[in-house]
Automatic annotation (TrEMBL):
It comes from the Bacteria. Residues 2-69 form the HTH gntR-type domain. This is GntR family transcriptional regulator. Coiled coil: none annotated.
Length: 225
């Protein structure tokens, strides 16, 4: 079975984000093909995609390597997200569907319930789903793609601390959804900007310990997506 390049791309990106491949480490087609159980063709395509996304860089005499983002690049990334997420919320207020609104309200209910009960282990994933759905509701493919890439990069570059006041954080999510439901684009934009600004303070640059360059094989045909 031929494994598509986008699946290989997702697998390599996940391994970069999780620290399996450290910044500056070489990414040879032969080693990656063996690790994921694929030919070199989809690996080559995946590396080109990851280079365009900023996860991989090509060095003279070394080939493909994991990118090494600077502190300034990491700071710029958070600043860009603080600009783009409010834009997505404003567009969602104009373009959201009933299905988007139903999912957003459901996530807010779950988040508020988990926050009241102190079930912090669920809140990170619920928050990710909330922001992903809000972006999808913008109806802007280019904006959705940018925000998706930024979420991956932020997870790669930063450790995100849990909100000090999760109940208040989810109340802010609820207020954004109320504005989106009413079609109030400017209020949705303003509330999301405030929320993004507060959330930025919980981000800490990730310190990456050295990892072994000997990686176990990954069977791409076993259901990894």
């Amino acid at each position: 079975m031929r494994i598509p390049a986008h699946a290989v791309c997702t697998a390599i990106r996940d391994d970069i984000v999780s620290g399996v491949f450290e910044p500056g480490g070489r990414l040879t087609e032969e080693v990656l093909a063996r690790r994921y159980g694929v030919s070199r063709v989809p690996v080559r395509e995946a590396l080109r995609t990851l280079e365009s996304e900023g996860f991989v860089t090509t060095r003279r005499h070394a080939g493909a390597c994991v990118a090494e983002p600077t502190e300034q690049e990491a700071a710029d990334l958070l600043e860009l997200r603080m600009l783009l997420e409010p834009l997505a919320a404003a567009r969602a207020a104009r373009r959201r569907t009933d299905a988007h609104l139903k999912v957003l309200r459901g996530l807010v209910r779950l988040g508020q319930e988990r926050a009241r009960r102190g079930q912090g282990e669920d809140l990170r994933s619920l928050g990710g789903w909330f922001h992903e759905t809000l972006a999808q509701a913008s109806g802007s493919p280019g904006l959705i793609s940018l925000l998706t890439q930024m979420r991956h990069k932020i997870a790669w570059m930063y450790v995100v601390e849990a909100p000090a006041r999760p109940v208040e954080s989810w109340a802010e999510h609820g207020a954004v959804v109320d504005a989106v439901a009413r079609g109030d684009a400017e209020r949705a934009r303003a509330l999301t900007a405030i929320h993004a600004d507060r959330a930025a303070g919980a981000h800490r640059l990730r310190l990456r310990p050295a990892v072994s360059t000997s990686q176990p094989a990954v069977n791409m045909s076993s259901g990894r997506h």
